[in-house]
Amino acid sequence: MQDGYIVLTNNPLVFEKLHSTHELIYREVSYEDILKEARDMIHQGHQLLTHPLSGSVKPNETPYKSMLLSKSKGRMDQASVRLIEYALDACKKFHFRGDQFQSDVYEDFQMIDWTLLESGMTSADVWR
């Protein structure tokens, strides 16, 4: 059982919805860079609580990613390391195409990421 979670995101919609009510780390960085920040937190002892490749949107199609990590630090969790490294490898296989979309599509991508995160938060809250 976890003692809570930290939201790690590069999604401005997630920031807007959660910054005043949740522990949140918001960065204006790329999808790959937010995965790297999660990797660094995992190496510090945080545990990954949501899958870094959740949903059916490929890393090259959206610039947004939000994840839950444990608040507490412990021993480095090998399962979390494997998941985040797999996600980083998958991300490197694709060239980002998201800059080909019109601005309203970015709002859709933000909403998709928010919906996936919200589902993960609901599950995490049940197990607290």
UniProtKB/TrEMBL annotation:
InterPro entries linked to this entry: GrdX-like
UniProt name for this protein: GrdX family protein
Organism: Mordavella massiliensis
